[in-house]
Design brief:
The structure holds 2 protein chains of 2 kinds.
Chain A (H helix, E strand, L loop, with lengths): L1 H8 L7 H23 L2 H25 L5 E3 L4 E3 L1 H21 L21 H9 L6 H17 L3 H19 L6 H33 L4 H10 L4 H19 L7 H8 L2 H26 L4 H24 L4 H20 L4 H27 L1 E2 L2 E2 L9 H4 L1 H15 L5 H15 L3 H27 L14 H19 L2 H10 L5
Antiparallel strand pairs in A: 1-2, 3-4
Chain B lengths: L1 H9 L5 H23 L3 H21 L3 H26 L14 H24 L7 H6 L4 H10 L3 H22 L11 H8 L14 H4 L7 E2 L5 E2 L14 H4 L8
Antiparallel strand pairs in B: 1-2
Helix pairs in contact in B: 2-3, 3-4
The chains are: A mainly alpha, B mainly alpha.
Subunit structure (chain A): NDH-1 is composed of 14 different subunits. Subunits NuoA, H, J, K, L, M, N constitute the membrane sector of the complex.
Subcellular location (chain A): Cell membrane; Endomembrane system; Membrane
Family (chain A): Belongs to the complex I subunit 2 family.
Amino acid sequence: MTTDIAAETLKLPSLDYAALAPMLILFGVGCVGVLVEAIAPKKARFPVQLVLAVLGIAASLTAIVLAAGTEKVTAAGAVAVDGPGLFLQGSIAVLGLVALLLISERSLERGGAFVAQAAVTANSEADRDQATRGSGATEVYPLIIFSLGGMMLFAAANDLLTMFVALEVFSLPLYLLCAMARRRRLLSQEAALKYFLLGAFASAFFLFGIALVYGYAGRVDFAGIHAAVLDSPNDIALLYIGLAMVAIGLLFKAALAPFHVWTPDVYQGAPTPVTALMAACTKVAAFGGLLRVLYVAFERSQWDYRPVLGAIAVLTMLVGAVLAVTQTDIKRLLAYSSIANAGYVLVGVLAISKAGLASSLFYLVAYGFSVLAAFGIVTLVRDADGEATHLSRWAGLGRRSPLYATLFTFLLLAFAGIPLTSGFTAKFGVFAAAIEADQTWLVIAGVITSAIIAFPYLRVVVMMWLSEPGESTPAVSLPGALTAAAVTIGAAATLLLGIVPQPLLDMTENAAHFVR
Amino acid sequence: MNGLVTLAAAAGEVKGGEAATFYLLAPIAVICAIGMVWARNAVHSALFLVVTMLCLGVFYVLQAGPFIGMVQIIVYTGAIMMLFLFVLMLVGRDASDSLIETLRGQRMTAVLLGLGFAGLVATGLYRALGNLDSVGLTQANSVHGGNVPGIAALLFTKYVFAFEVTSALLITAAVGAMILAHIEKRPDQKIAQPERMRARFAPDNYPGPKPGPGVFANSTSVATPAVLPDGTQSERSMSKILPQRELTAAEAAPKGTEHQ
């Protein structure tokens, strides 16, 4: 009897399908991808999945472009469609597309970077057999599409519950993808397990934080929390502990110290194209979520969280820079570099201003393109055992293959923030925004750590150019069309955003307004 | 039952049966949670966790959330933990943790930091919630005609998008389980019945079933090997994951029926 009454009063909230289309398209394409796995014959799966994924992301990007300029909250307040949200979704789509090129490369290694059957015991006879002839698993495509869809929702979620679901939707496929490397499978599985356990731990913190924030505000949507920060009768300790725990979940995904410890292991163990995807897209999504939580929901607590997060930014930059000096593996080096870069983005975020928001958005895109190209080149430097990632193997690479050494040098200079690269423009932007907002101490720390982290970059450069190529220096494989395209796009974007950054700067300026 | 629970919680303060149940079960829940972490044996850990989850389920029902209480018991305790136990039994409960610390002092540091963190959060929460009156529970449980319809209403209105997106999560989980656990055999790897028969009756292969362990003849343990007619022990009678048990002289002696 009671349920009858309920059924009468229930009305589906209005869903703005045009505004939700970018995510809905991706989730739909992901489902179709799973069906393709079930129906299509084995030989046809790879081309079908690749075309499907590219078309899906392109369609999603089109929907984002069409929705440009929209500012509204839809789906009963669950999703906010606004400038930063659409910009972040667009960058996730573009960076995801470039990462997809790296992921689909199959000419460097027979069958691609992914293992054919991840369930086969590593190093068993069946494993050796499939390593040489198995064509890589094509389930990675639906997983990547789901992950990208989750990232887009994460950047646009307007309440903490939707954000939590989005966090899980984009994390779970990444855990799986990490475990699917063709070479060094034990390392890859270890990376996946570490990422999964620590990620689940961080999610638990996030969830507990949501509960406490709900206890304080009585709401989980950002507008409600924003209002409650001012006039909730409850004890402020609930808000502080809740915000701290929500922040831990977000800082973990963005790989900020002291929640960064998973990064080097996971970046090293995961298949390199997946590492590229994580370094570019996950970072964008994680900072998208962090920006929205800090700017929309907790803006009025900025005096409380700013010093703490400021200390975390300084710690992150220091840890990333200092530990990068000691690395001997190029993937680990890039991992610590990505940690340090996350610290620089946080400096921009902590300006809590329009300029801070715009400069963080710019930084995320600029860094995403550079890091995709850098990992793309890492996939090329290989010998009979797969990628040669130990730094000593890179000695003398400049003599062997000047083109790729030049490109890599250029990208390292971009990470170091040398003028005429996107790294300089991006760093200048976040530092300028921070100084404007009286956060000079962050900028001082940023400049000092920039100087420190230039050292490991230059060491690699010196090693590549000034050492004689040894017996063990691997040749650089000729890239297939896909990797070549990805590296070219990444490097070209790094150069263009360094020389003519104005179009993107204008775009971020125009986008930098959150809807509440 | 719905109305009863709502009534019990509507008063706003904890008293009577609710308080009694809480103070009875809370220590059990905490002790079992500690036991779960402490236990060396994975099966014991899982069982401790089951008890903790059951207690939590009861708490939820006490707090006028019958739906989440039942879900906790049916889904977590009933389905997931039992599945977990099955897996443990299949894999073999012997697989215990290695107790070597790769980072020295890591365990101690973790315990201290964990206790410190727990203390910090607990005191903070106690201060914040110590004298807080909960309001709105009756309304939340009655506006749509009960607890379950209320949750349904929220799921299909306010949180409908999150609810739908959860399906992407479930699909991912299913695909992931397939990827990590399913091995697809190539056509030439499949063994047909004629090959199986030939292999079975090939020389050097014993075609009959393996002998059972010597449980009934010698002892009460499946770790006891069967004794063949010639007096030797048969290794084929034992599961490979079990350690072989040495028989005592009394057990190994031939047993007559007249003394029984």
